[in-house]
Design brief:
- By secondary structure, the protein is of the alpha+beta class.
- It is built from six helices and four strands.
- The protein has a four-stranded antiparallel β-sheet with strand order 2-3-1-4.
- Strand 2 and strand 3 form a beta hairpin.
- Helix 1 packs antiparallel against helix 2.
Amino acid sequence: MLLVVTYSAAARTGLRNLCRRHESVVARRFGRAALLDETVYAAFLALRLRESHGGDVQIERTEPFNEFVAVDEPVREAAAAYADRSAKATPYAAFAAGTEHPDPDAMRGREL
């Protein structure tokens, strides 16, 4: 997928127009950003937008996030347990304290 992010009002207008005119290449729209199909035509449209607006348009190539490859099982289990906690106002650090769930500071320091 191609992620197109805009940083000015004119570039946002251009992106909005691109998405309206070429719905077939748009996977998802997020206001200032859009995900486009990974096709040569979508790349052409994104590049055309960047040529018109310069540095106000950023284009990134993305890949789907596979949690089973990128993240260890304890992290996935901690996310599920935290989402299912009884006290919804409890911050994760307090929730994980004294358990086998990963420490938030340790997770911050690790790259995927």
